[in-house]
């Protein structure tokens, strides 16, 4: 059981999005040994070339390029959140969402309680996983470094599956403890979850990952749209990300 949990955690750091199954331990051990620095699984062939033929600086430059592509979706996602505020039925939740969007537009990194206060908004209309608009799903796919060029039904299914697996891996990682991870693994875990950790100190990465795990482990399955949006909400204004 302990070995299986560690394999799940290690896979979380190296970008595997393989659903649970009877072969999961063997599969995740293979992924753990095959991937470099922590780019997601869908970059696997190119990442192998980078590992063996690129210098460390070239590897960092490559990850920066991909993160710039990811960042292009952030204004679109925040704009969508602002547009749905009038469609939130609860006045208190409207106020919380308005405050969060205003803080983020001003460059403030949101607190854990700021995000969790909105969990109800992300469990049903208009921001629940089953109610997301196609444009928002495409933007979220880009933020997750997934191709957005799929029909809406496939985008929704893949985002839901991808987020569910990360949620399960987060629970395993929380049990193992961030203190058990190497500096390289911590940075990899942060990158997979939306933070460009290449230029952030290890301790800052550990702090950020701790915030992510506190949010993730507080969420139920019906609220995982909030975890998906946290790829943007938690990373966009984090100290050290602006160069």
TrEMBL record:
Compartment(s) where it occurs, according to its Swiss-Prot or TrEMBL record: Mitochondrion inner membrane
Keyword set includes Transmembrane helix: yes
Residue stretches making up the Letm1 RBD domain: 69-243
Record's keyword terms, sorted: Membrane, Mitochondrion, Mitochondrion inner membrane, Transmembrane, Transmembrane helix
Iron-sulfur as UniProt keyword: no
GO cellular component: mitochondrial inner membrane
A GO BP annotation: intracellular monoatomic cation homeostasis
GO molecular function: ribosome binding
Topological category with respect to the lipid bilayer: Single-pass membrane protein
Ranges that cross the membrane: none
Record Pfam families: LETM1_RBD
Protein name: LETM1 domain containing 1
Organism: Catagonus wagneri
């Amino acid at each position: 059981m302990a070995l299986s949990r560690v394999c799940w955690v290690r896979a979380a750091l190296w970008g595997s999005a393989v659903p649970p199954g009877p072969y999961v331990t063997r599969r995740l051990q293979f992924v753990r040994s095959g991937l470099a620095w922590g780019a997601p699984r869908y970059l696997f062939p190119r990442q192998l070339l980078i590992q063996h033929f690129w210098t460390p600086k070239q590897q960092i430059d490559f990850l920066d390029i991909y993160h710039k592509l990811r960042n292009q979706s952030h204004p679109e996602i925040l704009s969508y959140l602002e547009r749905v505020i009038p469609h939130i039925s609860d006045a208190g939740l409207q106020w919380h969402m308005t405050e969060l969007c205003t803080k983020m537009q001003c460059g403030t990194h949101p607190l854990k309680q700021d995000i969790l206060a909105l969990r109800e908004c992300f469990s049903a209309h208009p921001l629940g996983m089953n109610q997301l608009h196609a444009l928002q799903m495409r933007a979220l796919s880009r933020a997750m470094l997934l191709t957005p060029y799929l029909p809406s039904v496939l985008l929704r299914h893949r985002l839901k599956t991808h987020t569910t697996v990360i949620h399960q891996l987060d629970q395993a990682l929380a049990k193992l403890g961030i203190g058990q991870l190497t500096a390289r693994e911590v940075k990899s875990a942060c990158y997979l979850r939306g933070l460009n950790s290449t230029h952030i100190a290890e301790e800052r990465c550990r702090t950020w990952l701790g915030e992510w795990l506190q949010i993730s482990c507080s969420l139920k399955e019906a609220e995982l749209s909030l975890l998906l949006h946290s790829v943007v909400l938690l990373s966009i204004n984090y100290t050290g990300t602006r160069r």
